[in-house]
Structures are given as structure tokens and as C-alpha cells.
Amino acid sequence: MRAERERERESMESSILQGLIYPPTWFVMVMSVLTVAFLGNNGITEIRGNQLQYSKFWNVGSQKSTFKVSGRKGMFMVYFPAFLFGLASFCLFPNQGLRFILVKSALTIHFLKRTLEVLFVHKYSGPMFVDIATMISLNYFINTALMIYAQHLNRGLMEPQVDLKYPGIAIFLVGLSGNFYHHCLLSNLRGEGKQEYYKIPKGGLFSLVICPHYLFEILGFIGVSCIAQTWSAVSFTLGSAILLMGRSYGTRRWYLSKFEDFPEDVKAIFPFVF
User: Fold this and answer.
1) What torsion, rounded to 10 degrees, do the Cα atoms 95, 99, 101, 102 define?
2) 3-state class of 21 per DSSP?
3) pLDDT by residue (tens digit) across 156-205?
4) DSSP H or E stretch at residue 163
5) How far is 223 from 166, CA to CA, in rounded Å?
6) Are residues 175 and 221 in contact, defined by beta-carbon separation less than 8 angstroms?
7) Which helix (H) or strand (E) holds 68?
8) What sign does the dihedral 252-253-256-259 (CA atoms) show?
9) Dist CA 52 CA 141 (whole Å)
């Protein structure tokens, strides 16, 4: 009897998932698991105090032996290849329906925005190691390619029973605009090239969390997941959320160590929670 109820429960859960997400191929499923494992492990490493050495953490820990470039050049390397692939995907995968166009557009717009912010908005406190820039760039490039390719594999399949693409557009735009707004607030606080110009951020959601720009970035990726409704997009969103939670936890710890008057009630990324 218990086994029968367990089978019914598993069947119901499977049915719900099939109503929300396209069924994956083995390739998509394996790559999705690897994505969560890789990004999640990096997030846990950040929580443990071993930060990736860029931005305010560029000189934390043992120095890398690889070449360094300016922070602006390093971050341009991070975002521009993923933007180029998003742009190229309109030629590589033409005429495959509205959902596919929206997925390609959302990813291309996201990485175009990040590239333009690197060039015209952000101010950088230090250089960036080439190997770290390359690793992050490959992560964004590969996952952008996987999300678009996974969408391509769904051509001709029945759409999920629950259509989330229009709510996804709204969530994506909220994430995009909120992330940009808080990046502008951060930029207005900083002087170019000098770490001592860091100040406790104010305005927007900075009174509640130290990394609202990460919170809105996660929202943007949730929007992409709702538009795509594939395991590739969901796994990238989940992995990115874990990574950004770890990064924000380390950022809050950094501010607590640098500023005696840092407010204790300001959380890392989720207001009142974490």
C-alpha cells in the first residue's frame, strides 16, 4: 500500500514538472547537473572565505601567477563572448518560434547590458587575473550556448501545459532594471582605481541588503528560466543563485571587517533572511 502511494506521488510530481518544463535529453540533463555542481561548489567556496580574486577581492589570499589586466578589460573579457554568441544565435538558429526568439533576446540583452556597464558605468578598484576572467567567461559562454541549444532541441515538441514566458518577460525586465539601478548607485560612490574609496552603499535596497544588484540578477535569471522552461535555464539559474549568495555573504563579511559602523541588520542578499 505504501509503495503504491509512493508511486502515485512520484507520478504526480513528474506530471507537474512535465507541465512546467520541456522534457530534457540525456545531454541536457547531464550538462544541467554539471552546471549546478560547478556553480554551487564555487558558491560554497565563497561562503567559506575563499573568494574568487576580482573586484574588491582581487588581492585577497595568495597571489595568482598568471598575467593581470585592468579590471575593466578583465570584466569585458567576462561578458563580451556570451553577448557575441547570443547575437550570433539569431543567424545560427533562425525561425524557431516566439519562445526561442525571447530566450535568445533575453540572453543577448543581458550580456549586452553587462558589457555596456563595464565600458561606461562601473569603476574598478584593482586589476583582474587573466585565468579568473577566462574561467568566468567560459562559464557564461558555455551556459549561454547550452540554454540556446537546449531550446533548439525542443523544436517541434509540445509546449509545456503552463506557459510562463509572459510572466518571465516581466520578471526579467524587473531584474534587469533593478540590477542596473543598483550598479549606478554603486558607481556613484566609488573613485576609479582606489580601494579606499569604497563606502557603505546607500539608496535603493542597500538599506536592507549589501548586494541588491545580485538579488536582481537572480531575478533576471529566474525570468529567463520562465521564458525558456528548460532544465538548462533552471540549472543555470539555481547554480548562479548559489554562487551569488556565496559572493554576497563574503561581501557582507568584507564590509563588516572594513567599517565599524556597518549596520548589523543589513543582510547579504535576501532582505531580513540572509
Assistant:
1) 170
2) coil
3) 888 899 999 999 999 999 999 999 999 999 998 875 545 456 789 999 99
4) none
5) 9
6) yes
7) strand 68-69
8) negative
9) 18
